[in-house]
Amino acid sequence: MACEVNGNSDARIGEALIKEVIEEELKDVPSEDVPPLTPLAATVESEQERKLVTQLAKMVCIIGDLVQGDQELRDVIDGVARSSGSKWDNFQKVADKVFEHGITWERIAVLFYVAGKLAVKMVEAHLPETVREILMWTVEFFKKNLLGWIRDHGGWINSFSELAKSSVQSVSTMSAHSYGLVLIFVAGLAIGSIITWRLSRN
């Protein structure tokens, strides 16, 4: 029963995280251009889950900012936004590209980041209704292809150390101004550890 509860929590956290990342990417877009996303993804059920989603979203943004310079990834995002074919098929191609070398925590973060960037591109292309579709496609892909892997690897709680490792390794090659991100990240890691401790006591 406890495993089922944790599994349901992982599903909720994943859906809420996707929504949070997309909304974070859209924050600089005029709000009248963005459709509401609230009823489309599960919402967290506790303060601990909400804090976990917030910290994970910060990590996803850090990792996303680090891969932002990847021209191949940008070309794939632009290709989906401009393509006249099935948007779902094109999204699937992006997801396949992200996971072509297997699933890792970092690649899951990249997919969520890509979904947010794709949402921005669609609003810029005057296709705001597609933002809701991107959220639904990402949630569907997450449930079908990633949730089982996440559960097998200890749930979202266990993502902190791996995401921390990949973020810190990447940040070590960045400019001095980026060290503020590291501080935010480390603070998030500390909060994540507290959340992990509290969740393990329940």
Fourth-tier CATH superfamily name: Blc2-like
Rg, Å, rounded = 16 Å
What proportion of the residues is helical, as a percent range?
A: over 70%
Measured distance between first and last alpha carbons? 13 Å
Dominant shape: globular
Reported by name, the CATH topology is Apoptosis Regulator Bcl-x
CATH class: Mainly Alpha
Number of domains: 1
CATH architecture: Orthogonal Bundle
Briefly summarize what is shown:
The protein is mainly α and 202 residues long.
Provide structural commentary:
Keywords: Apoptosis, Membrane, Transmembrane, Transmembrane helix. It holds the Pfam family Bcl-2. GO terms for molecular function: BH domain binding; channel activity. InterPro entries: Bcl-2-like_sf, Bcl-2_BH1-3, Bcl-2_fam, Bcl2-like. The chain has about 200 residues and is mainly alpha-helical. It has a single domain, classed as Blc2-like (Apoptosis Regulator Bcl-x). About 75% of the residues lie in helices and about 0% in strands. It has helices at about 1-25, 45-65, 70-80, 85-100, 105-125, 130-150, 160-170, 180-200. Helix 2 runs antiparallel to helix 8 (about 180-200) and helix 7 packs antiparallel against helix 8. The longest helix is centred in the first third of the chain and has 24 residues, at about 1-25. Residues about 1-5 and about 170-190 have low confidence and may be disordered.
Keywords:
202 residues, Apoptosis Regulator Bcl-x, transmembrane, Bcl-2_BH1-3, 74% helix, BH domain binding, mainly alpha
Can you lay out the helices and strands and say which pair or pack?
Elements: H1 2-25, H2 47-67, H3 71-82, H4 87-98, H5 105-124, H6 129-152, H7 159-171, H8 179-201
Helix pairs in contact: 1-2, 1-5, 1-6, 2-5, 2-7, 2-8, 3-4, 3-5, 4-6, 5-6, 7-8
